[in-house]
Fold:
Amino acid sequence: MSVMVSVEFFLQDGKQNDMLASLAEALPDTRAFNGCISVETYAEQGSSSILLVEKFESKAHFEAYVAWRESTGFGDVLAPFLAADEIVRIYEIRSE
Structure:
């Protein structure tokens, strides 16, 4: 079953543009990852928050993606921009 994943990043003041630049480099690999359907980036205006909305073919595909990102050390790339831990939510995509 397809899933929608939201990932909210809370950034240090003045780091939104730097984070967006890092994401611009990284997200083509995300979009090419097996099972990824789409990824959209939302930057909150006047704030230090970024929201990613991702769709994957299944939760297992998303979990494989997360394991791959962790193995590449991508969290270390993002860490200097973050003010707090990100919030990840996984939703089943339903037809009701």
